[in-house]
Amino acid sequence: DVSAVAELQAPPMVDASSGHLRVGAAISIERLLLACESAAVSSPALSAVSLALARHFRRVATTQVRAVASWAGNVALAATAPQLPSDILTLLAAARTRVTVACRAAASLGVMRT
Question: Would you report the helix, strand and coil content of the chain in percent, each value rounded to 5?
């Protein structure tokens, strides 16, 4: 249960310094879709890619599934079960997204960028 990890639940936002959309791993596919639509309006640099992603996210699963399933859960499932293709992973790869993974080991926090 990751509901107590604030960073994973943080609302999607466009980072003012970089212009990138930042989204926590526990954010639902529906919230990611809405964040992409919002980013397209607020950040001209993101508009074309964000609108294309939002348009395709609407085709992923059903409305009910998008409301509760996280985008990162979908990606993790694809990593552990390669026989189940992931539309979301394919979209994020095509958009050349970057995923930052943070982990706590002992007393230090390590960050791995992929």
Answer: 50, 15, 35
Above 90 in pLDDT, residue 14? no
Q: Are 29 and 88 in contact (CB under 8 A)?
A: yes
Residue among 102, 73, 78 at smallest CA distance from 90:
78
Angle at CA of residue 18, ends 13 and 23, nearest 5°: 30
The number of beta carbons lying within 10 Å of the beta carbon of residue 35 is 23
DSSP designation for 11: P
Task: Write out pLDDT tens, residues 35-83.
Answer: 999 988 888 878 889 999 999 999 999 999 999 999 999 998 988 998 9
* All residues at 6 or more sequence positions from 6 whose CB lies less than 8 Å from its CB, including other chains: none
The strand ranges marked E within the chain are 13-14, 21-22, 100-105, 108-113
Tell me the pTM.
0.82
